[in-house]
Amino acid sequence: MKTLLLLLLLAASCVHTYKPVIIVHGIFDGPKEFTKLSEFITKVHPGTEVTTISRFDYKASVKPMWQQVIGFSKDIEEIMRRHPDGVHLLCFSQGGLICRGVLSTMPDLNVHTFIALSSPLAGQYGVTSYLKCLFPKCVKKTVHLICYNKFGQKCSVCNYWNDPHFRSSYLKYNNFLPLLNGETPSSKMTAWRENFLRIKRLVLIGGPDDGVITPWQSSHFGFYNSTEDVVEMKKQKFYMDDSFGLKTLDARGNISVCVHAGVKHTEWHSNFTVFRSCMEKWLT
After folding, report:
1. Are 278 and 203 in contact (CB under 8 A)?
2. What count of other Cβ atoms lies within 10 Å of the Cβ of residue 232?
3. Is 170 among the domain residues?
4. What percentage of the chain exceeds 90 in pLDDT?
5. How far apart are CA 207 and CA 88, in angstroms?
6. What is the pLDDT of residues 166-180, one digit of tens each?
7. Which end of the chain is more exposed for a tag (fewer CB within 10 A), N or C?
């Protein structure tokens, strides 16, 4: 009897438990948009704790990015505190940049995998339906007039609007993305880089038919130069300078890139094929 009990205890201790998954929504999104994605996760990894944070959802998602980073950090820290073995961050669209901010500014974080699902990681330079909701009459050539000033920086989209034709204004007035990338000087950059490098894996997901992230390669840290030719991640200055740790992660073999054609922006989190091929194996 004692031997049987010991074997049962050993078997129980060998049962694999999956790390909790924290989902961070995008602009004009909230928890209900991620019901299918949560179901995908628990279907293939039964027992996984999945939390879609509801803070700054829907209309509140246009608030300044630093304000959102602070708010989301509180929620993520609370969940991490309950799980000393670590968690995964799965962040969609604008949420990917929020998660970058959290990962950079939060000391002693315990995030194993950061999945950026169709996120404008290197910025946005394209007018979409989302932007039209905020600035109905704008065209991409004039958005810099709205965004690159103190008033414009109170809107989340303006915090990562990256106009390749007005580089100096982007660096001078944009108070979020250039700081996060180390493109403008900051005394905090060394600490932020060390924090970001605590993650074990970075997964970048995007594709050419997204229709919102512009250029779509921004989801893989690529972006336009001044002639609007796309420069890939490894040729970006922030990569070559390793200003926030991207090159180091790559050298470690800790960056995974997944490209899917035929997926529209609002379909990424409800496409089971994308989940199986790009996310499933990293959420263990």
Report:
1. yes
2. 12
3. no
4. 88
5. 22
6. 999 999 999 999 999
7. N
Q: Would residue 209 show up in a list of annotated catalytic residues for this protein? A: no
Distance CA 161, CA 211 (A): 16
Nearest-angstrom CA–CA distance, 78 and 264: 33
The catalytically annotated residue of 210, 220, 243, 260 is 210
Q: Is residue 265 part of a domain?
A: yes
Q: Are 109 and 79 in contact (CB under 8 A)?
A: no
Point out the catalytic residue in the list 88, 260, 265, 269.
265
Tell me how crowded residue 157 is: count the other CB atoms within 10 A of its CB.
23
Domain of 110 in residue numbering reads as 18-123+188-282
Mean pLDDT, residues 183-199 taken together: 96
- Confirm whether pTM is higher than 0.90: yes
Q: Is 210 a catalytic residue?
A: yes
DSSP H helices in the chain = 2-14, 35-44, 65-81, 94-105, 129-134, 143-147, 167-173, 177-181, 189-196, 237-240, 246-252, 272-274
- 269 domain residue, yes or no: yes
Q: Cα separation of 210 and 133, whole Å?
A: 18
| Number of independent structural domains in the chain | 1
**Annotated catalytic residue within 38, 93, 104, 243:** 93
Residue 75 lies in a domain: yes
Q: How far is CA 225 from CA 106, 139, 209, 232, 236, in A?
A: 31, 19, 21, 10, 10
> What are residue 115's DSSP bridge partners?
90, 203
| CATH code of 46's domain | 3.40.50.1820
User: How is residue 161 annotated by DSSP?
Assistant: B
Please write the tens of the pLDDT for every residue from 99-142: 999 999 999 889 999 999 999 999 999 977 767 777 777 788 99
